[in-house]
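Lab notebook, bench 4. Still working through the backlog of constructs that have no structural model yet. Next entry is a single chain of 379 residues. Request: give me the structure tokens for it.
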Amino acid sequence: MYKNLVAAPCLALAAALFCPPVFSQSARPSGPAPDLASAPAATPGPLKAAFVYVAPLTDAGWVRQHEEGRLAVEAAFKASGKVSTRYVENVPEGADAERVIRDLALQGNKIIFTPSFGYMEPTLRVAAEFPDVRFESITGYKTAPNVAAANARYYEGRYLAGVAAGRLATQAGYVAGFPIPEVLQGINAFTLGMRSVNPQATVRVLFISEWFNPPKEREAALSLLNQGAQVLAFHTGSPAVMTAAQERGALAVAYHSDMRKIAPDAQIVAVTHQWGDYYTRRVRAVLDGSWKSGSVWGGVKEGMIRVEGFGPKVPAAVREEVLARQRDVAAGRLHPFHAMAEVRDNEGQVVIARGQTLSDAQILSMNWLVEGVVTRLPK
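Model written out:
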């Protein structure tokens, strides 16, 4: 998901952590050499699992949800003691990420989770050097014999949040990082959700060309509010948009995490990411030898995306409507990109014909903004 973030502090060299003890001549034990054949086998230690985080670990946001996934792994294996975990936070994409991932492999970690799109290539390069280590490229799309890819259908939650937003507001503002397909999917699904209950709804987007920059996220949020936005949504890494909405008495949709502690009055609903079950299953597969490479794209049905955390300004009827639609998504009765009537982009071109449902390939290559989004794509 993320790229181009602030620099992270250097890690200690892995080699310094794993040098075998060196005995001087005088320090060696005297007497006959031990009978190694009769010595008991060493008890293997716990499986070591590592997680690389692209931004600082905070109380809410993208990194927090992956940390919750790591904690779920710890909880699942706490009684057996079969797994130990660690994480490294605030690691920028690129050369730093490759160095950190390599260090973690050298330190004996047997499964390494790298949850950021910009970690994909560094993960693949390191994986080629460590064929006995398993890697999980989260939001990546390339795989290798020892690299699996996984992502979530965030757009499903965005559509449901749009339904809630459309019941409470007509003008929305959306703070976004970069105009990549994953982000465009969310903007379009949110807009379609709003307009499914409020056909006059519009969404204004500000792309800030960064994923994690709280001051810049806040500035964009305030700008959108000044332009008339009644509700805010965002696809960036911090809770800054929620804080701005709370201060201004506006409404907002939380993303990644439930952010009611940060914006108790502003939050109308949260689109939350649920990684614990997936991470636990993948670690267990390494333990039992069943781990295989592959690609997973899970959503509401698989429990990887959820709308929850309704705020006090959401009427009970709206809450029930959104939850009913969430059940429809889980059951396959509702698809955010199925067109009951033809869907046009904001330049007038038909992008989903009447009765058509976009394929996964079409969703993954999305390069348009739907009618109702008043912002044009950056050139």
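Notes after review: The longest helix spans residues 181-197. Residues 2-42 have pLDDT under 50 and may be disordered. Flag for follow-up if needed.
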